[in-house]
Amino acid sequence: MDALDTFDVLAFFAFVAKLKETARAGWNMKFPNGSPLCSRRVPNAESVGDHSYGLLMLAMVLAERLCVDRLKFMMMAALHDLAESVPPGDVVVWHEPVEDQPRLRAEKKAREDEAMKVICVTLGKGGAEYLALWKEYRAQETPEARLIKELDLLEVAHQAVRYFAQGHSLNPHEFLNNVRKGISHPVIRELFVRLEEDLRVREARKS
To answer: What is the mean pLDDT of residues 5-33?
Structure first.
């Protein structure tokens, strides 16, 4: 029997399907009074699967302009958050006390490393290619990996502006200020600047 048999594919796809049920944590967070951050509330916010699909489409249409291999770029986008299909899902640590963040990040990395091994083993020998590609993304040492990270940030910024336009309770500038620091490629920077202008127009209409 081939290593990539139907049973293995279905086991793998169960993890993929789980992403559609895994909420993106950053859209619903409550901060105490006096916090520099504003609480966010977005009912029925996107799932990790929704976000991953958005990133995948950005990778598909921008690969040529970014001078990268489209297939590899799309595969990396599709895989980038797959580890979050395993509990506890999408875990954010940036809002935790500064002294706790290194430990929490290390724990998150260890959990996700183990999760991806479990996920990719369902594909038998073929899973090694996907695990290697995911590790390349995590290492952030190749052009493709760094560009997927920038597009990941752009997708977040776009969603923040979209939720703001829909009237949800969040401060889009918190997202855009964070994203701005992580985008350097001229093509992606141009798209981000257009998002900022779109936000200014929307704010002017609301004022």
So the answer is: 90
Compute the mean pLDDT over every residue in the chain, rounded to the nearest whole number: 94
Is the backbone of residue 46 left (phi > 0), alpha (psi -120 to 50) or beta? beta
The CATH number for 6-206, chosen from 3.30.450.20, 3.40.50.1860, 1.10.3210.10, 3.30.1330.30, is: 1.10.3210.10
Q: What are the tokens at 182?
A: 């992580």
For the chain, domain boundaries: 6-206
